[in-house]
Amino acid sequence: MSVEEIYSAVARIMWSIMPERAVVFELFGKCYGGYSENEVWFTDSAGQRFQFEFGGSPVRPLYELMKSMEALKGEEPFVREPWTHFKAILGSGGKFKLDFAYIPKEEDVIGIYMRGREGAVPIQSRFCRGKKEVHKNRGSGSDFQELTSATCLT
User: What are the DSSP calls for 1-56, one per residue?
Assistant: First the structure.
């Protein structure tokens, strides 16, 4: 898969599991060769942050998201510019953004993702704007237009 195809797959999966009341979906994660961890946060229209209900986290889609992010590490430019932590943001309007940082494994702390960590080195940011209409039925992957036609800025 190309970088753009991976970005599209990540955005499509995020869109498919984004709760109806959410206007922003934030996925924080880290990948260290065989070990990965993630944390999901949503923001509603009133600015309140929330997570999936206890026991309601969609395990399989989140697993697929992390596998896609791990695959991204094997693509250029990330082979030359490695990263360990990422933050993916998807808005209900279709704006998709990925930020990356490198934190050596020996300096990593469980449950900390790119937040005020000394030694966190921002690697690259990409802003992707896709043409998409907001649909009421967020559970269907067909509601999200592919980001292959998106404009990605570095």
Answer: --HHHHHHHHHHHHHHH--TTEEEEEEEEEEETTEEEEEEEEEETTS-EE-PPTT-
Cα–Cα dist 79/73, whole Å: 6
pLDDT digits (tens, 9 = 90+) for 7-31: 999 999 999 999 999 999 999 999 9
The Cα 59–Cα 51 span in angstroms is: 14
Prediction pTM value: 0.71
Q: CA 143, 145, 147, 150 torsion: positive or negative?
A: negative
User: Is the Cβ–Cβ distance between 38 and 65 less than 8 Å?
Assistant: yes
Longest dimension (CA), the chain: 44
Cβ contact 103:84 at 8 Å: yes
Q: Are 86 and 98 in contact (CB under 8 A)?
A: yes
Taking the C-alpha atoms of residue 139 and residue 69, their distance in angstroms, rounded to an integer, is 21
